[in-house]
Amino acid sequence: MQKSNQKNSSDKIYDYIIESIKQGKFKPKDRIKEQDLIQETGLSRTPIREALGILVNEGILVQDGKKGLMVSGLDLISITKLYEMREFLEGEAARLATLFVSKVEIEILHNIIEEQKHISDIAEARANNVLFHEMIYRCSNNNYLFKIMQNLDKSLILLGESTLAKPERIQETYMEHANIFEAVRKGDEKKAQEMARFHIHQAYKIRLERVLKNKS
């Protein structure tokens, strides 16, 4: 029972840090101190260390000789490589989805798209975006691809503000998702792959513009 409680506590710490990074409370290069986490969460040092170890293994946190444990940061080259890999894998997931998607999954994807049509709030758009992409991963019928994409998506939280924060991007994303869905529904492998890759490439261009703007 004690081990189970400890595991639950480490999960809570893990989720707390991930959400803090997503919300901008912890930014890239920020130092993460065990004592601060103890005070903020009221949890003990052991589960905190377990959660920190997992986050280090996932590349979300890094150990710096001078500063100690800190939130990872991605440079321009790393961001480009991340999006290149994501573009390739998203395209493959969409292509496989055309081969293995079920009628029930088609209905679920359709409902996600219909809900997205009426979304204007950024937080809701982000949540809907996650649902859509995770559903495409599931439809690929490849557990290895699904796990790789989940881990890859975790790296996106290090990039800061969502590309959906750009005013017109929510509507653009809806149209791009709709195109992917239609290709999957029709079983068009090539079109599904092309539309998925285009979708990620558009997000990359917005991200690149933002990074370069912040540097200038």
UniProtKB/TrEMBL annotation:
CDD domains: WHTH_GntR. The keyword Transport does not apply. Gene3D superfamilies: GntR ligand-binding domain-like (1.20.120.530), Winged helix-like DNA-binding domain superfamily/Winged helix DNA-binding domain (1.10.10.10). SMART domains: FCD (SM00895), HTH_GNTR (SM00345). Pfam families: FCD, GntR. One of its GO terms (molecular function) is DNA-binding transcription factor activity. This is GntR family transcriptional regulator.
